[in-house]
Amino acid sequence: MPDEEASQGRLHDEGLDSNDATSRLKHDALLSHEDAEQQLDDPALNYNGSSSLLNLAPEHEALLSQENEDYDHGSDSESFELETFHATGEGWEKRPQKLRLLNNCFRSKCSKVIVAVAAFALAIFVAAFLLRDELRPFIGGHQLDPPQAYLLDPNWDFTAPSTRRDYTWVIEDVEHNPDGVYRPMMVINGQFPGPLIEVNEGDTIVVQVVNKATNATSIHWHGIYQNGSNWMDGTVGVTQCPIGPGANFTYEFRVDGQSGTYWYHGHHGVQSSDGLVGPLVIHSEDEKSLQRIEYASDRVVIVQDHYYDLSGALIMDYLKPDRENAEPVPAGALINGQNVRNCDDLPNRKCDNSTARLAEFNLEPGKNHRLRFINVGALATFQIQLDEHEFAITEVDGTDVLPQYHHRLKIQPAQRYSIVINTNVTTGEAYWLRARMVTHCFAEENIEMAAEVWGIVRYTSSSPLLVNVRPSSRDWPETIELDCNDMDTSGLRPVIAIPAPATADDVLYLRVNFEIGAWKLSRGFFNASSWRAPVSSPTLNRLIEGYSTSNESFTSSLSSHFGYNSAAFATLRELVYQTTGIRTIDILMQNFNEGSHPMHLHGYKFWVLAQGHGYPPKDVFSTLDLTNPLRRDTVAIEAFGWTLLRFTADNAGIWAFHCHLSWHAEAGLLMQFLTKADEVARWTLPAENIGLCELEGHDRGKGPDDEIWYGHPSR
Ligand code: C2O
């Protein structure tokens, strides 16, 4: 697996192998909800809940102190002067003394030695110049390619015969300081963000998950169809029980009928926000023609909001009584897991930024380069730009699209956009890659927050002496957008045109809202339903059990072609819409809430037919352009607006449909589609899946039950 080798290699460069790094970062964090709650109750901790978890191990301190020169990017980020190495200046000061020594030497026998040394030095200099790109990582005393560079293999074989790609992932609790601030995290193989999966369409992905963390977990493969492997979808409470602490589970599925940029993430509680995220790229054998602009390099760029506290603590606070629309506000943001915070700004945090770096990207000048952006965050919409570089959007959520040019990209959580830039700008050798969280959509202020994270794009022609030079590139003059809607995708046309079916068999009207119920609890609703994950009794397990025992409440509905299934499910907590055979379904969502919601349907891509403010026009169905609408898997419904989707329900299984703001899904904004139920009725569930529900501790780390607050409305 080239990607694994590559990342291992980079770790070695730092003198750390991944195990080593893991064990150094490892701590005995107590990550359960009970503990989180305890910390919350302690006013002294004042929600820096994790401070007791943040004691540095002595080995770790040693590791940090051997690290090198400061690369602080904090309060001074407005003035970027050319900075070369300190070493150069020092050399000049000592020069007169050196000259005297040289004079004495020429009169003595050591002159031959001097000539030899000079020749040697010259040879080294020439070699260094010729190998400047290769040596670049060492020149500044740190690596320019981050541990997770996510550079895609330039020699990739797009036409290789279908193969099986095996991975072993050990999930552990670690203490890590991606931007300087230490926090407890859950990571895969000691890496954050997680390892890249790079495969061809038709390949089988096999991931053995070894859970060495304190909490149970699961991994969901965002956007993957899982056609014929619904039980590998990784969705706790829908397709599986969590993988208990100490347990293993192997995900195995074939990727077929799709290509492009996807990702994976924890799907138990809000674990994705604790570090369980990573990229998954599927190459089509036609990739070169599906992408209409040829490019010289291809890579993934992950952006995300970043919290300093465990999601378990944050969700307890968010879901407690009297907390309407108060989603936890992130403290910062990361690009490929990197940023540098100024520790002086964060006096209440354990912070050491000496190992923190800004993400850097080395691009060959005069060429096109593809950047695959993924927003893996829990809440924030990002606006992203590479200063002074216009770019073309060429892919959206795995759908190749005809290039459309922009200055800024707007990307909601769980969405992906590929952009292609041309490194033909001549104003400098380095440019800021700015990723800005749209803070306008946050409910509260977070005094710790740094709303922007910047990366650096360097043209590789730079002389080795310029590798530490900060960009002095300019921002675009357009004002920054303040809303968290989707960017306007109505003009984006898929390269492979697929007309949407002319009509749908059924239209679901979904009312999206947050409502305050008993004990002042604010919860997310689709119509009158608010989901609570049945962690120990996933929908799929119940369905298969019900069908195989000919339980009437499950079998009776199989005679109707589509509709809500209220026979088998208590719709107040589990809204399940069911189809048999192949149906075309419309989802018309109306948002009665003041926030925008990126809605994601598992197992499918849908056509985005229309989006708008207020209410849909009366003639909405007669004015649709069905010739080739954008197909994607995550679409926003704007505040007090509406969105119309259409999809062909032809993939057998139970599929979650939910808001991808992780806090909202946990607050209940999730429903399910049981499609081709007649086929699901013939399935048997693999023993491994059933076994997960029997494991001790499999519910560790689940969200709080509402009942804990009953009778304690102000707790
Ligand atoms: Cu990324 Cu349930 O999804």
From TrEMBL:
Pfam families: Cu-oxidase, Cu-oxidase_2, Cu-oxidase_3. Residues 172-286, 299-441, 536-677 form the Plastocyanin-like domain. The keyword Membrane applies. Residues 1-37 are annotated as: Disordered. The chain crosses the membrane at residues 113-131. Keywords: Copper, Membrane, Metal-binding, Oxidoreductase, Transmembrane, Transmembrane helix. CDD domains: CuRO_1_Diphenol_Ox (cd13857), CuRO_3_MCO_like_4 (cd13910). Residues 23-36 have a biased composition (Basic and acidic residues). InterPro entries: Cu-oxidase-like_N, Cu-oxidase_2nd, Cu-oxidase_C, Cu-oxidase_fam, Cu_oxidase_CS, Cu_oxidase_Cu_BS, Cupredoxin. Signal peptide: none annotated. The keyword Hydrolase does not apply. Belongs to the multicopper oxidase family. It comes from Lophium mytilinum. One of its GO terms (molecular function) is copper ion binding. This is Multicopper oxidase.
